[in-house]
């Protein structure tokens, strides 16, 4: 199966947000990746509920919401109402991860778990069958435009082995520093979804850049 491409709206032009959303709608991209940062879990604040609501209103593709916030349980119901199809919480931000996953699914969303670069794959051994998506951070979360951490390849292979050993159907998403240079190797290591922010929105022709990424991973 072809790897999915999820442009990260964090790198869009917020003064022309509807234009950039329509660009993604009309491109070969598969998902919208939406980064919500609270300035506590990560040292940056991105945008919140009203902006997500506006994005969901125009988006015609899956809305994949990546929460980089502490205590995400407080907002699960709210994010469901704002149009999130997939809700990803950070492993490092959840005291009762199993309960959080069930709460996300109870609201009709797919449940994702993101792992920081230092967080070991083995910590998901007891929950992998309950997780629809694992988002492997290939940069330290908080900012777009950072360099890809090479150890990610090793983690993708470990995660793929864990998923297969448990007979789970969990998707593997890679987030941070994705470009045309690492897309193919990531697919071959086992990635199902590639998030790309600055590489797509910083390009002269974002539609063509998305198309190139799709070709590389097809
Ligand atoms: C980082 C975010 C990423 C970011 C990726 O904290 O989770 O989704 O937008 O941006 P690039 O592709 O520029 O590394
Ligand atoms: Zn993200």
Summarize the structure.
The protein is α/β, with parallel strands linked by helices. The protein is built from 8 helices and 8 strands, in the order E-H-E-H-E-H-E-H-E-E-H-E-H-E-H-H. It starts with a strand and ends with a helix.
Task: Give me the oligomer status.
Answer: single chain
The CATH topology label is: TIM Barrel
The spatial strand order of the largest sheet comes to 1-8-7-6-5-4-3-2
Distance between the termini: 8 Å
- Uncertain stretches of 5 or more adjacent residues: none
CATH class: Alpha Beta
Structural class: alpha/beta
- Main pleated sheet: 8 strands, parallel
Count of DSSP strands: 8
Bound molecules: D-xylitol-5-phosphate, zinc ion
Helix percentage range: 25-40%
Mean of residue pLDDT values: 98
Counted up, domains total: 1
Q: CATH-wise, what's the superfamily?
A: Aldolase class I
Shape: globular
What's the CATH architecture?
Alpha-Beta Barrel
Radius of gyration: 16 Å
Helix and strand pattern:
EHEHEHEHEEHEHEHH
Fraction of residues in β-strands: 15-25%
Which secondary structure elements does this structure contain, and how are they paired or packed?
Layout: E1 4-7, H1 17-25, E2 31-37, H2 49-58, E3 62-68, H3 76-81, E4 86-90, H4 97-106, E5 110-115, E6 133-137, H5 152-166, E7 171-175, H6 183-189, E8 193-196, H7 198-201, H8 206-217
Parallel strand pairs: 1-8, 2-3, 3-4, 4-5, 5-6, 6-7, 7-8
The structure holds D-xylitol-5-phosphate (DX5) and zinc ion.
Residues 8, 33, 35, 66, 175, 195 line the site of zinc ion.
